[in-house]
Write a structure and sequence with these properties.
Layout: E1 11-12, H1 28-40, E2 46-48, H2 60-74, E3 80-83, H3 89-102, E4 106-109, E5 113-114, E6 118-119, H4 122-133, E7 140-144, H5 154-163, E8 167-172, H6 177-188, E9 194-197, H7 204-210, E10 214-215, H8 222-233, H9 237-258, H10 262-269, H11 287-298
Parallel strand pairs: 1-10, 2-3, 3-4, 4-7, 7-8, 8-9, 9-10
Antiparallel strand pairs: 5-6
Helix pairs in contact: 1-2, 3-4, 5-6, 6-7, 8-9, 9-11, 10-11
């Protein structure tokens, strides 16, 4: 990234999980405690309604309710990214306008897709992003994730960044993320304001070495990951490596074993939220997986296991 363009947002912006009661209804009291914990734990910002928020299991009314309640509760303490992905351009456009009106700092969107087979080519994807961007005053982040099943080359992403003014941030979650980030930065130049890491920071160090300036992780331990980013940004690469080595077992456990329920399991164990469950038909975490997750976390003494009990 050309250092002449200062990034408006950098650092760690973890995904806020959606909290439910045992019957599957929204638990807003737990939701707000979750948000307060994530801010107290050192998050530079937050991301709402992402895949790790189980956005795919929410109704439109629930989505709107969560966005309004959380943005009002955050009240500008940290910048908030709102995920607006949908297949229909008009719906994504309406979601972008709503998020901006409610005070979101940025919106994040995937390319249009549905299920395993409905895909759109590059012309349609470019039009999709361009129409959403019209008149938008906040930046757009492209979520380049395998879930969309849509190949987005670095050259195509760089072209969209040059041609679509608010489109300036990129969360790269695909295989070989560091190589793609490096190519994107080289091809996009000043148009690439925010090259970001994803996937629970499992590839964080190579991505930072490639030029990543932000990371969107799970929400349970920003206090563990933020120092890695701070050390790296300050040129203390040995310290970043040592800190990453220490936290990597937990990062790995979340990314490869526990998945999107990891944050809620840890928050529940720490007394922050009332119920760790996802919404049916998402299967519950296996008891042995939960045990392994908690044992791994306890070795690190993260704030998540103490915040709700203080």
């Amino acid at each position: 990234m050309n250092p002449s363009r200062a990034a408006r947002y950098r650092g760690i912006f973890p995904v806020v999980p959606t909290t439910f009661h045992a019957d599957g209804s929204l638990d807003l009291e737990s939701q707000l405690r979750c948000v307060d914990f994530m801010i107290d734990a050192g998050s530079d910002g937050l991301c709402l309604l992402a895949n790790f928020s189980e956005q795919f299991a929410l109704s439109d009314a629930e989505r709107d309710q969560l966005q309004r309640v959380i943005l009002e509760h955050v009240a500008g303490r940290v910048p908030v990214i709102v995920t607006i992905s949908h297949y229909a351009t008009s719906i994504v456009r309406a979601r972008a306008e709503q998020a901006q009106a409610l005070g979101a700092a940025m919106v994040m969107m995937m390319p249009p897709y549905h299920g395993a087979t409905f895909r759109v080519g590059e012309t349609g994807i470019h039009e999709h992003f361009a129409r959403v961007a019209e008149g938008l005053r906040i930046p757009i982040m492209v979520q380049d994730a395998p879930a969309a099943g849509t190949p987005l080359s670095a050259a195509f992403l760089a072209r969209m960044a040059r041609e679509i003014e608010p489109l300036a941030y990129f969360k790269i979650e695909t295989s070989g993320a560091a190589s793609k980030l490096r190519e994107l930065i080289e091809l996009g130049g000043d148009a690439i304001e925010g090259p970001w890491d994803g996937e629970e920071a499992i590839t964080l160090l190579p991505d930072l070495a490639a030029g990543a300036t932000g990371s969107m992780t799970g929400g349970a331990y920003p206090d563990g990951i933020r120092p890695i980013l701070e050390h790296w940004a300050a040129g203390r690469h040995d310290q970043a490596y040592e800190h990453y080595q220490r936290w990597l077992p937990l990062i790995n456990y979340e990314n490869r074993q526990a998945g999107l329920l990891a944050a809620k399991a840890l928050m529940h164990a720490g007394g922050i939220i009332g119920c760790p469950a996802g919404r049916h038909p998402l299967p519950a975490m296996h008891p042995q997986t939960l045990q392994g997750l908690l044992e791994t976390a306890r070795r690190l003494d993260p704030l998540v296991l103490r915040w709700g009990r203080s």
